[in-house]
Design a protein that fits this description.
nine-stranded mixed β-sheet, globular, alpha/beta, about 25% helix, Luciferase, domain 3, about 475 residues, GMP Synthetase, Chain A, domain 3, 28 strands
């Protein structure tokens, strides 16, 4: 099976059921299928097989229709972030050299297909529908971008099989089916939410998306539509839980990825979604799912969970030899979900047969739970010791007044590098002395930062992750308030 291959049969079996709900607009399966087939006709007549089709559209049913049409015709959907600055967009288009750009306006010097997202889907490519030949399962269909914060993010390429295999593993882990209503409140340029939407449409579930993330609107729609599955980054989930309202009884699965939940989220989520199971993913753009952390697994607090269904994890040293249980080394992952290659840029990848390491460091315990130490490229050397800032951030983030933290090193003649911690919390609720005392409970002295500060604003990437490079730039520019 390939992406979009189930659409026609779903439209035949439940033509008048809603497939997509977006800001009040309701798109039935028959409407979606007809639009996708008309788009398929246009793409096949204007581009060669395997062509790159850049998509520069905001969240909308139109975006999903274009994405499905590109995949079904054996083309590659190159998903561009509409929130990128012009320089990012220019560099991405230059690197990708798409055969066609699907967009709203005419501000681009590329062959373009213009889409008005304020008009019904029936206005897109009016005329006859078209049934394209099914592409090969190993053919690439999607180019997404990592959540890079400086320069152009890396563009990674995926084939149909990597996602279809993920759908099957997802069914094993969570049992999401055709009767579910899936809420995907983030940007479709973020692979977590695009995956959520395309997975739902592949299996016949309804999907709710939003042009912009507004917590009160999202929670109202989840309640009104009786959503049963929610995908959310931890930062989004925290904002959703701050919206007042009654418990939502229809929600049965809450899924999150990007960073670990805070203790506040862990306490509030069961109150708002009393009938839901909760799970966190650890993964990466290049790896897809790696581990899952469920309450039922009784996962140790410091672990990121056990291997996702269909995933094999090994810990190896720098020479490639497998390390014993409990020893720290490079995390190698093997699964059907791995990416194909980079369309733009490159990464610090290590391939070993069918295994892939993207630079994460960690270890496995005797029960198969994985523990992350950090990324090789974020490691700090201070006073002759290798320090992974993620270890320190996990401790600081557990402080009841800290919402997020970012630790980095600055040059120091005596130590090599000195640790600096930027923190995000309530105004006036944090002090350097309190944070040092708190960190000292779980960290040895060389791992405890002596300098703490608050940036003018907490920077995040488009995917909701902490923008470490942007925050470090704030510190270096002198824009941060040093805590006493």
């Amino acid at each position: 099976m390939t992406i979009g291959s189930t659409l026609r049969s779903l439209a035949a079996s439940k033509p008048d059921v809603n497939a997509i709900i977006c800001d009040g607009a309701q798109i039935t399966w028959s409407q979606l299928s007809a639009c996708v087939q008309r788009l398929a006709r246009e793409l096949c007549s204007s581009t060669p097989p395997g062509a790159g089709i850049a998509i520069h559209l905001p969240n909308s049913p139109h975006f999903l229709a274009v994405f499905l049409a590109v995949a079904m015709t054996g083309r590659q959907a190159q998903v561009l972030d509409t929130d990128w600055p012009p320089s990012h967009l220019k560099d991405a288009l230059k690197g990708l050299s798409p055969n066609l750009l699907v967009c709203e306006g005419t501000d681009f010097s590329y062959q373009s297909l213009l889409i008005d997202i304020d008009k019904p889907l029936a206005h897109i490519c009016p005329g006859e529908i078209f049934e394209p030949e099914s592409p090969d399962a190993l053919a690439p269909f999607y180019v997404g971008f990592t959540s890079g914060s400086t320069g152009i993010p890396k563009g990674y390429r995926r084939n149909h099989l990597s996602w279809v295999a993920s759908f099957a593993a997802d069914a094993h882990e969570f049992g999401i089916g055709s009767n579910d209503i899936v809420a995907a409140p983030g940007s479709m340029s973020h692979s977590l939410f695009l995956y959520a939407a395309i997975h739902a449409l592949h299996i016949g579930a309804s999907v709710i998306l939003f042009r912009r993330f507004r917590p009160d609107v999202v929670m109202a729609e989840i309640c009104d539509r009786g959503a049963s599955v929610l995908y959310a980054a931890p930062t989004q989930l925290a904002l959703l839980l701050d919206v007042s309202g009654a418990p939502i009884q229809t929600m049965r699965t809450v899924l999150s990825s990007g960073s670990k939940w805070s203790s506040v989220i862990s306490e509030k989520t069961p109150e708002r979604f009393p009938n839901a199971d909760f799970a966190e993913f650890y993964g990466a753009s290049e790896l897809s799912f790696v581990t899952v952390r469920k309450i039922a697994d009784k996962c140790p607090e410091a672990s990121v969970g056990r291997a996702f269904h269909g995933v094999s994890i090994k810990i190896r040293d720098s020479g490639g030899d497998e390390l014993p249980i409990g020893d720290t080394g490079r995390i190698f992952v093997s699964s059907p979900f791995l990416f194909t290659d980079y369309a733009i840029g490159s990464g610090d990848l290590v391939r070993r047969n069918d295994e892939l390491c993207i630079g994460d460091i960690g270890y496995l315990d005797r029960d198969g739970f994985l523990y992350l130490e950090g990324r090789e490229n974020r490691m700090i050397v201070t006073s002759g010791k290798n320090v992974f800032p993620e270890q320190i951030e996990r401790v600081l983030n557990s402080h009841p007044s800290v919402k997020a933290s970012a630790v980095f090193g600055i040059p120091d003649r005596r130590r090599g590098e000195r640790l600096v911690a930027l923190v995000h919390g309530e105004p006036g609720s944090l002090s350097a002395s309190e944070l040092m005392r708190y960190a000292r409970r779980d960290l040895s002295l060389p791992f405890v930062p002596r300098i703490y500060a608050k940036p003018p604003e907490w920077r995040s990437t488009a995917s909701g992750k902490t923008d470490f490079a942007g925050l470090k730039a704030d510190w270096l520019s002198g824009a941060c308030e040093v805590l006493e």
